[in-house]
Amino acid sequence: MTDFSYVRSEMLDEKAPPSSSTGLVGWARQNLFNGVANSVLTVLSLIVIYFILAAILPWIFVPTWNGTSLQNCREILTAAGSVGEHGASGACWGVINERWQQLLFGFYPDAERWRPILAFALLFVAVIPVLFNMISRRMNWVLLLAVLGVGIMTRGGAVALVIGVAFLAAAVYVAFKMFGTSKGDRALEIAEGAKRLPNPLIFSAIFPFIAPWLLWGGSVWVPIGAALGFLIGYGVYRAFVGAIGSLGALILAVIVPIVWWLFLVGSFSSLMDSILPFGLEAVESRKFGGFMLSITIGVVAIACSLPIGIVLALGRQSDLMIVKALCVGFIEFIRGVPLITLLFVASTLLNIFLPPGTNFDIILRVLIMVTLFASAYMAEVIRGGLAALPTGQYEAADALGLDYWKAQRLIIMPQALKISIPGIVSTFIGVFKDTVLVSIIALLDPLGLNNAIRADANWNGIVWELYGFIALIFFVFCFSMSRYSMYLERKLRTDHR
Amino acid sequence: MSSVQFDQHADRSHMSVSDEVAIEITGMNKWYGSFHVLRDINLTVNQGERIVICGPSGSGKSTLIRCINRLEEHQEGSIIVDGTELSSDLKNVDKVRSEVGMVFQHFNLFPHLTILENCTLAPIWVRKTPRKEAEELAMHYLEKVKIPEQANKYPGQLSGGQQQRVAIARSLCMQPRIMLFDEPTSALDPEMIKEVLETMISLAEEGMTMLCVTHEMGFAKEVANRVIFMDAGQIVEQNEPNEFFDNPKSERTQLFLSQIL
User: Could B126 and A414 be called an inter-chain contact, meaning their C-beta atoms sit closer than 8 Å?
Assistant: First the structure.
């Protein structure tokens, strides 16, 4: 008879893992050389990478930054001894040196370029409180004031200098109040400051009115009038919600501002302009170009497509037949049509259908089309997130007595959007890259400018340098978005799988 | 069939039932498409009653209690909860839902919110309770279900039994007059069933009106003052627990009990 009865008399202590599985050696062993096949692959990959870099790096690192033409570049390369089988070999960076400003700004007037730069810097200040919660309120205001100060000073001139210095002084004042505590308890100070200072999201909310004014210029009263429309809508809603119920007030709050924007804003702004004229030099849309144009279209499409996409996705899931049919019809139609078709409609057909004499800005038309296009895709991505939620979540929200909108806002959307982050960011990246399609309707985005530059006799024949430069800048933006999405996914992960 | 043993001699005589009607269901019928799931249901529940509903799967017991807070719509008959009739009027529905708590088989906690936020969400957004007060209330009920120390964790970090107790606390935070339990222990490991049932018993002892779909017959014997047996969408038999288990009248009930006990 076997005796298998056994009782452990003492529990074992924890031991450190063997040294071959930790540290650099352990890592390399686990990831690069665990087995014959993996080791061979590692070595082969290293060889391939070496050959690629050996071919590319000498091409990149050549002293042609000051070349004045392709011919001149070749002379520089030959002089430097960088000669291959077919004559001089190496990049001709002179074209980037001469034209990078054009690639960034198109034909935007030189003297006004501080405006798109300021708008771009302000964009970051505006999105930081939306995207991150790691910098304090006060820090955000300091940043805003500093950016405004520097941005205005770069305009040049005495008045701009005075205003810029005033902003910088304000920034220093706000910052000093944060750092200048005697007790040194900064966390407490920030917490107190957070109470006193207004929420930086206020600036995020008014940025959409500041940015177009900076870019297109004109009277300051136009963006103020446009912003007033929203205030009017809110006021109408608050005034009538008691009398005619929330739905009626909501409808009024949509109609009244639309009437205001369509018929009254023009006279309002010209009236105010005659009383208190203040504005920037107007810049026409056809002078827009380069990455400034891509970023303008991309940012607007990204910012607007998310809320529109959410509404469409909810509409598609709605029990109301007509709402559902409208949303499905819109999504399927837009997704079923190539973006280029929509852009052609925007650039040519729309003019035929609009009443003669209507001046409907070409960039505005493109913005609307790209936004609608992105919204349709966004709606489907978000619908995927909604579909991934267990019905139990809806039931639990219902059972607690939350109404539809509260349940959506507090329970459903936070989870659905979190699930859809990879898809949403993919769509964002896709939309941003799709903005180069506007070159087809003769807008001078980076690719359109690229063709124009290559038509110049000096640079005729250059391909890689220009495309490489454009690709690099696109890569920086797209890669940043991708990294942000990963950061966000990590931050929002609460399921602890 | 797992059956948890409770203190058989506990004095539960103080768990009285009032004459006040909490739920009144008359002539209720429900169809899923052409499938007749609930057939002529008549049921009156008094304030303070503890009712256990049992029956084979597909008999309509879950559907019945889900009709009481209108997670399911009924097509015929009437359901009156605390004097409010359930109809397509959304205001009535929201009113009933805020007074009727529900605990689900799969807990349905909100995974993106902490335990405390799960518990304070409805009081803050439905009852408009100030945040601080709602948090105090939530901590009170989390202490009651014996997990106040988990308040700042996320549901995914808790065991099944703990999650179900949080779900109960979340419902209680709305201070409901009626609690519905839809197989609250069916998705739990045997070790965790008891901790949830004990929470439910303490709730019953405080006089909460409870409707509970469960297969825990030990719980039914100890706590319920009425057991309802359903089959094929109808109420086949209802009785007080001792009579129901010792002396079932209907053949269908006898068969069911012989299979599970």
Answer: no
Of the candidates A224, A314, A232, the one whose C-alpha atom is nearest the C-alpha of residue A273 is A224
Q: Which of A400, A420, A494 to mutate to test the interface with B (most CBs of B within 10 A)?
A: A400
Domain membership of residue A43 (yes or no) is no
Residues of chain B contacting residue A393, judged by C-beta atoms under 8 Å apart: 108, 110
Nearest to A395 among B108, B156, B170 (CB): B108
- 3-class DSSP assignment, residue B128: coil
| A174, part of any domain | no
Q: A92, A122, A151: which is the final residue of a domain?
A: A92
Contact A379, A331 (CB under 8 A): yes
How crowded is the C-beta side of A301, counted as CA atoms within 13 Å?
A: 34
Among residues A37, A66, A92, the one where a domain terminates is: A92
From the list A369, A380, A225, A259, the residue with the least C-alpha distance to A304 is A369
**ipTM, two decimals:** 0.89
Size of interface A-B (CB pairs under 8 A): 71
Q: Which domain holds residue A383?
A: 285-389+423-497
**How close does chain A come to B102, measured CA to CA in Å?**
6
Nearest to A207 by CA among A310, A121, A298: A121
Domain count for chain A, please give it: 2
Closest chain B residue to the Cα of A492, Cα to Cα = B112
Flag whether residue A401 sits within 8 Å of chain B, measured between CB atoms.
Answer: yes
What are the respective helix, strand and coil percentages of chain A, to the nearest 5? 75, 0, 25
Domain of residue A358, CATH code:
1.10.3720.10
Domain assignment of residue A262, yes or no? no
Query: pTM of this prediction?
Result: 0.84
pLDDT digits (tens), chain B, 261 positions: 445 555 555 555 556 677 788 899 999 999 998 899 999 999 999 888 899 999 888 888 999 999 998 999 889 899 999 888 888 888 888 889 988 999 999 999 999 999 999 999 999 999 899 999 999 999 999 998 888 898 899 998 988 889 999 999 999 999 998 999 999 988 888 888 888 888 888 888 888 899 999 888 888 888 888 999 998 889 999 888 888 888 888 889 889 888 876
Residue A172 lies in a domain: no
- DSSP letter at A289 equals B
